[in-house]
Amino acid sequence: MRAILSVSDKTGLVDFARGLEQLKIEVYSTGGTKRALEEGGVAVKSVSELTGFPEILDGRVKTLHPVIYGGILARRDLPDHLSQLAERGIGTIDLVAVNLYPFVQTVAKPDVTLDEALENIDIGGPTMIRAAAKNFPSVLVVVDPADYEAVLTDLRGGEVGPERRKKLAQKAFQHVAVYDTAISEYLRRGQEGFPEQMTVALTKRADLRYGENPHQQAAFYSEEGTPVKGLPSLLFGPELSYCNVLDADAAWSVASDYSAPTVAVIKHTNPCGLACDDDIVEAYRRAYAGDPVSAFGGIVGVNRKVTRALARAMRPHHYDIIVALEYDEDALTILKRKDGLRILAAGAEAASLKGREAPRWEYRRSWGGLLVQTPDVLPDDSSKLRTVTKRQPTAEEMRDLLFAWRAVRHIKSNAILIAKDLTLLGMGAGQPNRVISVELSLKQAGDKACGSVLASDAMFPFPDSVEMAAAGGVTAIIQPGGSLRDEDSIKAADEHNIAMVLTGFRHFKH
Fold this sequence. Notes:
- By secondary structure, this protein is an alpha/beta fold.
- It has 3 domains: about 190 residues, Methylglyoxal synthase-like domain (Rossmann fold); about 120 residues, 3-Layer(aba) Sandwich (Cytidine Deaminase, domain 2); about 120 residues, 3-Layer(aba) Sandwich (Cytidine Deaminase, domain 2).
- Helices cover about 40% and strands about 20% of the residues.
- About 40% of the residues are buried.
């Protein structure tokens, strides 16, 4: 038997090659892989000894040769294939262990040049992988170092069965598909619009406890090429479920959307509590006070370090998850006393990216396909806001309006949010009409709604929502506008001395 080893990821390489050597399998290699094997004391031959042809073009052409691909692609069950090999003095190649240049890591560097990126596009590697995978009944193809030991065990037993071979081939084709997708995405950078064809490259990062319900299975995959590569670190508590991941992502997305110290309390992906304050403990107290009933069993997002004082403030309340930038050791000691609590650390990388660098596209399954859209990114330019009422908002009202407008895009439509002093007082989410959402948000805010502001994710088709808000004590409203009856809502606002600001764009979240 003969094997070709040519890998970028050299994890376990030397031990694998030694195992092959002990099984009397000839090992051939190239470049850095060959050097690593020689340094590890493995008897390895150059691929050039097989081909009788030297590497050329600075190593761009090493394995692209009929001796290599004839030896890989020949079907062992076809006498004619074997006789053609014999006529030309070509031996079979029975194992190919290849993984590819680190293209994704290369193009992730901020100063990478096009020439550098192109040099990291592997040609011979994918070709060998595809050839071996095509002929998997006869050729073992190994792209994942995690499979080395299982392959060696089977070889020592005398046979690698068809199911193992098929699984290895499937992983091989997927490995190349992910690689090609990364290249395509890189070359697509800067292009406008949606491509006619596209693939999404995903890598499994974790199996989850279960799906939305315990009878469903679930896993978490990260998309190759995105800045944040995985889940926040689970510092303490039970493993995560599908809903835990969704809720924790919602909590961190809301909290990290603000630059000021911010705490968000989430229930079923909607913020039921939210506040900003220079003192993170005070921000927590006000966020919790927004809806203490819904906060029970909720998820807390903190865009700063959790201190001992903040942990002490949280201790009396029951939460499923806390996700924060990081934690003091004293804070962890306090929080770990709470049974069932999951403690997640988003880390500095997520802090610098999440909520500030949106992914290029968002995906959602529908009708046997995927809906694809660009993210709902909130423009930082507030100069396009238009006050359409006789009364201008005060400085305090405008501050709260901008706070509320940023928050309302995180709430399921029809979304209404009541806020005051950079604090969420009440919200209505996912209702069949906007009036019900207004009613729910005012009911939650209660007497605190007096002097508050209201944000609506979409236009008011009728003035009834404005009139209800006025009756509840709201003094300023921010909404997209665009209804045929905008003038009716503006008139109602003027009649109640409410300042109304139009943004010109909406924030539906279905």
